[in-house]
Design goal:
The chain has eight helices and twelve strands. By secondary structure, the protein is of the alpha/beta class. The chain binds calcium ion.
Length: 226
């Protein structure tokens, strides 16, 4: 399990500099560690390379808006809980954020005690929700990025962020054959080539055994149990 004694880590994605400075100060005073991004692309980058306990994401952001950011994260297997901040009162905007995979939303302007309470609630929910996937004999905990063997025959194995994301996609639909292009789009950055998929399949096999990912010749890969 993750170290629960460490300060919770938050990622704030907010393009209003005055508001983001105020919130960073507020959360820091409350004992959180906070990183901040000022547009959706930067927020996506940080959320993929960092390891956050919760994210606070403004709905209206430059480059990539908040709902799109959350949708991309979820498609890549990142399960970090998200609170959307929205200045828009329309029901459709709130629903859009939740549909994209956010856990909660707060309408601007908000009261600070309410924001803090919502963040505490997200963190509780994150601890309570075992973000696990089970397929075959494997169980993957996406929060700790640990794979365990449900038969108890093998020791737990820790994965990198990308190994975990790739295995999560394969395990989420264990009978489906995924093309390299599908895996590339759901797990990797646009700059990566299809060779990156093969590389990470190789890493997974090295850690978990050859059969964990099956090659489907002429098509791609699927989860293979063992
Ligand atoms: Ca904004």
């Amino acid at each position: 399990m993750a170290d629960r004694t460490a300060a919770p880590r938050l990622l704030l994605v907010e393009d209003d500099r005055a508001l983001s400075s105020m919130l960073v100060e507020l959360f820091t005073d409350e004992g959180y560690e906070v990183d901040v991004a000022h547009d959706g692309q930067q927020g996506l980058h940080l959320s993929l390379i960092g390891h956050y306990d919760a994210m606070i994401v403004d709905r209206g952001l430059p480059v990539m808006d908040g709902a799109e950011l959350v949708a991309v994260l979820r498609s890549r297997g990142v399960v970090t809980p998200v609170l959307i901040l929205t200045a828009r009162g329309a029901v459709t905007d709130r629903v859009e954020g939740l549909d994209a995979g956010a856990q909660d939303y707060l309408i601007k302007p908000f009261d600070v005690p309410e924001l803090l309470a919502r963040v505490r609630s997200l963190l509780r929910r994150q601890r309570d929700t075992a973000a696990t996937l089970t397929a075959g004999a494997w169980r993957l905990d996406r929060l700790t990025r640990t794979v365990s063997d449900t038969t108890g025959e093998r020791a737990d194995v820790e994965l990198s962020e990308r190994e975990c994301a790739l295995l999560a996609v394969l395990m989420s639909s264990p009978r489906q054959v995924f093309t390299r292009t599908q895996l590339l789009e759901s797990v990797f950055d646009r700059a990566d080539t299809q060779g990156a998929v093969d590389t990470y399949v190789h890493y997974l096999r090295r850690k978990l055994g050859r059969d964990v990912v099956r090659t489907v010749h002429g098509t791609g890969y699927r989860f293979g149990d063992r």
